[in-house]
């Protein structure tokens, strides 16, 4: 009987990879294993670092670093604050694979399947839980610069307009055709994060993250719209990764680092800049990284 889980060849670094093709994903995984070794490549937990949140990746112990340029099918990361490394090692005593740099749909012509290729690859490397982080603008007025918000739900705006990574033919080996995104941000993991936050006296908010397509920041009227529909923080990432993770059964914990306050007043001249985002992320990055390590220590995988 044919074994669909055993590709006969590993992909070459510059080989064309179709992110919608399951066998191509297995070839990418085979290439990674060939480069870092089978034992190193196996991980129980995946982490995606948001803008300026690379320190989470720097904290990985016994690290083996594979630059994205050596991974077949991985495009380059163009956004400042996203280094472009896949890091294998240990964090909080668990075997992790950490993506220091993510793919934003606005960088890749809204090719969401391409932008979620790393999630499918991490699934094949064995991860059961994924921690996603992002830099976000605060909409809820309780949020301040540098606050951490646990994501309890999301509004995946591009997907509501047809830009979902799951659009197109679905190979059942990826998971269900129609994916449930109820409880997408795992309730038990959120509870654990809240307990860890409490022990370390960290103020942790819980709220709804909205993903816009970007790359432009939002107008005050758009911020008002998002506020009206119940969003607490906004950004241009994460929801596509979480959707694909849920399709393949990975549990998700997500948090937003509030790097700026979204402006609702069209008469106020408040400019958001990526420099501000990176600046605040840098200031809070070490704290976020410690928090993630503390959560990981407590995980029961
Ligand atoms: O979501 P991350 O990757 O943290 O990046 C956020 O920061 C960038 C804008 O400053 C956008 O890419 C937005 O999504
Ligand atoms: N869309 C969006 N993304 C961000 N990333 C960090 N801050 C923001 C913001 O205000 N809006």
From TrEMBL:
The keyword Signal appears for this protein: no
EC class: transferase
Molecular function terms from GO: guanosine phosphorylase activity; purine-nucleoside phosphorylase activity
Gene Ontology biological process terms in this record: nucleoside metabolic process
Binding site for phosphate: 51, 82, 102-104, 135, 237
Source organism of this protein record: Caenorhabditis remanei (Caenorhabditis vulgaris)
Pathways per UniProt: Purine metabolism; purine nucleoside salvage
Entry GO CC: cytoplasm
Function summary: The purine nucleoside phosphorylases catalyze the phosphorolytic breakdown of the N-glycosidic bond in the beta-(deoxy)ribonucleoside molecules, with the formation of the corresponding free purine bases and pentose-1-phosphate.
Name of the protein described by the UniProt record: Purine nucleoside phosphorylase
InterPro entries: Nucleoside_phosphorylase_d, Nucleoside_phosphorylase_sf, Pur_Nuc_Pase_Ino/Guo-sp, Purine_phosphorylase
Catalytic activity: 2'-deoxyguanosine + phosphate = 2-deoxy-alpha-D-ribose 1-phosphate + guanine; inosine + phosphate = alpha-D-ribose 1-phosphate + hypoxanthine; guanosine + phosphate = alpha-D-ribose 1-phosphate + guanine; 2'-deoxyinosine + phosphate = 2-deoxy-alpha-D-ribose 1-phosphate + hypoxanthine
Lineage, opening ranks: Eukaryota, Metazoa, Ecdysozoa, Nematoda, Chromadorea
EC number: 2.4.2.1
Keywords, sorted A to Z: Glycosyltransferase, Phosphoprotein, Transferase
UniProt xrefs under Pfam families: PNP_UDP_1 (PF01048)
Family under the similarity heading: Belongs to the PNP/MTAP phosphorylase family.
Binding residue positions for a purine D-ribonucleoside: 218, 260
Superkingdom to which the source organism belongs: Eukaryota
